[in-house]
Amino acid sequence: MTTQRQRKTPAQNGKTSTIAESSPSVSSEQTELMTKIDDLKHELEQSQQSEKLLQQTIEQLQTQIEEQTSIVQTLETNIEKTNQAQTELKEAQQTALKLAEENKKLIAENQQLQTIAEEVTQLQTKLKHSEKTAAEKASHLHTELSKTQKDALHLAEANQKLIEENKHLQADVKKAQQVRVELTQVQQSALQLADSNQKLIEENQKLTEKPPEQTSTLATKAPVNDADLRSHREIIRQRQAATLAHPVFPIDPAPPKVSDQDIGWFD
Fold first, then answer.
1. What digits encode the pLDDT tens for the residues 99-155?
2. Is 88 exposed, middle or buried (0-12, 13-18, 19+ CB in 10 A)?
């Protein structure tokens, strides 16, 4: 604006010179021009003032921008700090939760320890009472032990007597076994005698029950000797007497081969 006004001013000065030379109304035009110039100067001053104001405002804006950038930087740093603080707060919350859980556990353990302590005190009282009763029982057991020792001595003596009697019984058992062996031998001999006796009885029956025809034929052929029959009968009677003189009384059950009829007296 200053340059344009400076360009116009020489044209205006030339006009004023031409107007002063040409016409009598130059004074009025000059006054108008002077007023215009004054206005322009005033406007120029105002524009200069406005420029100064603008520069001041620009400077202020620059300072404000710098301040705002610094504020932004501080805000960014503060945001970073707040983020770190939030992360730290989360970690602190987690640790607080863990501590709360551990605290609960410790409280529960403390309660358990208190109950255990109460139980221990109760057990101590019971233990003292049981110690007293144990001492009393120990004295009672000591007296009973002395009695049982005496009884054990008596039992040992009785046991020794029983051992001696058992020895005698074992000897008697051995003798009984020997008697059983002899008895089995006697039974076998008795069975043999019974068989021979039965055979002799059958022969005697055959001799006594012969038909008269055979006797007549025998009488015709050879006379019967009465002495032989008598001697044969005496032999049978002697064998029967021998078997009756030694009766058999079985102690053990009979062997499987011997029947019930063979046990006892043999005819």
1. 999 989 999 998 989 899 998 998 889 888 888 888 888 888 888 888 888 888 888
2. exposed
